[in-house]
Amino acid sequence: MASQSLQNTTVLVTGAAGGLGKAIAAAYLDAGANVAICDIHEARLAETRAQFEGTGRFLALTTDITSEEAVDHLVAETVARFGRLDILVNNAGMMDGFDPVGDLSKANWDRVLGVNLTGSFLCMKAAVRAFQAQPPPTKTSSDNKFRGLVIQIGSNASTMGTQSGAAYTVSKHGVAALVKSTAGFYGDAGIYAVALMIGAMQTNIGEGLAVLGGFNQAAYARSSAATADGESVADTADVARYCVFLADARIAAGVNGSAITFNKNWPKQ
């Protein structure tokens, strides 16, 4: 039987029609939360909607997170359906083609940063505004100040120069800084932000490579990413469990502003 520990809590997970995002959405549903997801892939979103809508606690919307209007609509629809928003999981993202700066086109730089960095910013902005506009959750908690939480899916690549190409590296460095800024400016108001710095993981994030026009095999071969093996790969279900753990208001307050490493010690320290 599913735990009801997060009953009356509303969670929004971006990029959640597959891969890690879908695993996170399922974990929150199992914990009793109301869950809204978005994705840009309509067919896959429809399949996920059919899988989860029977819970009565699920909403799935097609959303381009690089559009501020679309993101504002997503958050407004989530609040209209469930009455509030408590947690945003900024999961949506795309991989780059492993191009170092000398090989990277501006078009691909713009694409990757548009989704990973600008998209994360727009979702975080809309969520923070929703948190500010609503009263604290009506549930017993020793942290009566809690107003909302942003969990940002980050990456080892943000601090290691050869785990991806230049665009992805910069985008993940940027979202880590976005978490720090948000935590610093809003923590006193009970709005918390934390990043999960994920290592190697089997997800669908590489699906966007086709729009980038290829994959830089030579650069990849020189990267630390090429050394990952089965023992190094984090399980999406384990990351999802950790997201549920962070939903505890006191835990969220305690880790506000943190960049939490979740990489199975890969590359080994």
From TrEMBL:
Top-rank taxon: Eukaryota
PROSITE patterns referenced in this protein's UniProt entry, alphabetically: ADH_SHORT
Keywords on record: NADP, Oxidoreductase
One of the Pfam families matching this protein, by short name: adh_short
InterPro entries: NAD(P)-bd_dom_sf, Sc_DH/Rdtase_CS, SDR_fam
Keyword Oxidoreductase found: yes
Family per record: Belongs to the short-chain dehydrogenases/reductases (SDR) family.
The protein's name: Short chain dehydrogenase
Species, as recorded: Apiospora phragmitis
